[in-house]
């Protein structure tokens, strides 16, 4: 599918005629990376070549760019993400999902590396490196940032994060109220509709969380060691439905930055509200446990 072109890399309507998909053009050829065209933007299709896969002449790609929706962020290095998933997390490649935060079987969660973490920021990708969304901390005052920089008092304050899709639209809102010993995270829809809560059950030993919805426990998150690096996620029958694996980001980053990288593997399609709570869990665990000791104090 290689062709000569000066067209910049980016997401364009699928040249094979799938209007519901955007396909990644790497600047020289079409790749296998696709994502859902959630805005349904119209785009001119590239005619398929007889007996061969569709090519992408520069003029056709340029025409598509004029009609395409706002381009999504460029994917991370696919080889790096694949190593993170397959070698570091030990996950066998699986079939791609629907191209969204709630339809992909594997979510790669990478935190932006900083020397001092003042605002939590994460990128969420699929197993091929295509960005599906992001997570950012919101409603954080200047006073909170100062407290986070000079001390560990930040762990006792309220934290709010938004999970956003690739277009920047909020999908879930996570609020961890101020705490003393145990964390509790409230999960809501963007309109304030409650999804459930993730409640820390113990302080010492292997940390466990209960996932609650409508006053009933629908699942649990169980740390597999006392350092709380890897977690098994189970449903109300104690059957494992997903797994979180922390991936090694290198000695330098581990010692001197705040980067935390995780892979969330969902074993099969889950019903709501369990699905939303599981997706939120990959980010909640880090906020509830890992960020508590950040800062200089």
Automatic annotation (TrEMBL):
GO molecular function: phospholipid scramblase activity
InterPro entries to which the protein is assigned, alphabetical: DUF2510, LOR_sf, Scramblase, Tubby-like_C
Gene Ontology cellular component list: plasma membrane
Pfam families named among the record's database cross-references: DUF2510 (PF10708), Scramblase (PF03803)
Stored Gene3D superfamilies: LURP1-related
Residues annotated as domain DUF2510: 9-42
Full protein name: DUF2510 domain-containing protein
């Amino acid at each position: 599918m290689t062709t000569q072109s000066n067209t910049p890399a980016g997401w364009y309507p699928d040249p094979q005629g799938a209007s519901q998909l955007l396909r990644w053009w790497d600047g020289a050829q079409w790749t296998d990376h696709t994502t859902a065209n959630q805005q349904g933007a119209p785009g001119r299709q590239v005619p398929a070549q007889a007996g061969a896969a569709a090519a992408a002449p520069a003029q056709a790609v340029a025409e598509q760019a004029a009609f395409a929706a706002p381009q999504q962020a460029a994917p991370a290095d696919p080889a790096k993400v694949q190593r993170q998933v397959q070698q570091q997390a030990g996950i066998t490649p699986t079939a791609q999902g629907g191209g969204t935060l709630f339809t992909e079987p594997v979510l790669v969660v990478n935190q932006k590396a900083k020397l001092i973490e003042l605002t939590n920021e994460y990128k969420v990708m699929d197993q091929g490196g295509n960005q599906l969304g992001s997570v950012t901390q919101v409603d954080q005052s200047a006073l909170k940032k100062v407290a986070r920089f000079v001390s560990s008092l930040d762990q006792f304050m309220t934290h709010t994060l938004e999970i956003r899709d690739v277009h920047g639209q909020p999908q879930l809102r996570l609020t961890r109220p101020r705490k003393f010993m145990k964390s509790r995270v409230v999960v809501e829809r963007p309109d304030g509709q409650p999804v459930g809560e993730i409640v820390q059950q113990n302080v010492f030993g292997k940390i466990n969380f209960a996932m609650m919805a409508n006053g009933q426990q629908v699942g649990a998150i169980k740390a597999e060691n006392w350092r709380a690096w890897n977690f098994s996620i189970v449903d109300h029958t104690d059957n494992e439905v997903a797994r979180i694996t922390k991936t090694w980001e290198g000695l330098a980053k581990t010692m001197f930055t705040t980067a935390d990288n995780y892979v969330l593997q969902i074993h099969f399609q889950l019903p709501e509200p369990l699905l939303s709570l599981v997706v939120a869990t990959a980010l909640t665990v880090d906020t509830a446990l890992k960020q508590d000791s950040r800062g200089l104090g």
